[in-house]
Amino acid sequence: MSNSASGMAVCDECKLKFLELKAKRSFRFIVFKINEKVQQVVVDRLGQPGESYEDFTACLPADECRYAVFDFDFVTDENCQKSKIFFISWAPDTSRVRSKMLYASSKDRFKRELDGIQVELQATDPSEMSMDIVKARAL
């Protein structure tokens, strides 16, 4: 069950909540964190459907790593309403080196557990996941 590189298991709740976001659109975003005590990736925060991208970015800690998925709605140049699920790996420069290494080594396995991710972003600073960047990556 655990990843040989980092030993992190993925809590079932992570997969269940992701499926709810993907299939039922129950959440706008989900923030995940690694709980080192139990060696598991767990749900840190669920964003309600009415919450914005700003609400999402505001809940990411300034000095701790996180994983997140964000359901991004947008309108194409052809005026089509679309949605893409982003996987965001948040590793601010101010976070501990050990934490950054742990998140980096666990990311690929965790991402594989979440079937349906369409775009991946890695950010070490809020400017690296600005709305302009998200829009550009979605199109």
From TrEMBL:
UniProt cross-references to Pfam families, sorted A to Z: Cofilin_ADF
All copies of domain ADF-H, residue ranges: 5-139
Gene Ontology, cellular component aspect: actin cytoskeleton
UniProt keyword annotation of Ribosomal protein present: no
Alphabetized UniProt keyword annotations: Actin-binding
PROSITE patterns: ADF_H (PS51263)
One example GO MF annotation: actin binding
Transmembrane segments: none
A Gene Ontology biological process term: actin filament depolymerization
Family of this protein: Belongs to the actin-binding proteins ADF family.
Classification via PANTHER family: COFILIN-RELATED
Function: Actin-depolymerizing protein. Severs actin filaments (F-actin) and binds to actin monomers.
Protein name in the entry: ADF-H domain-containing protein
Gene source species: Panicum hallii var. hallii
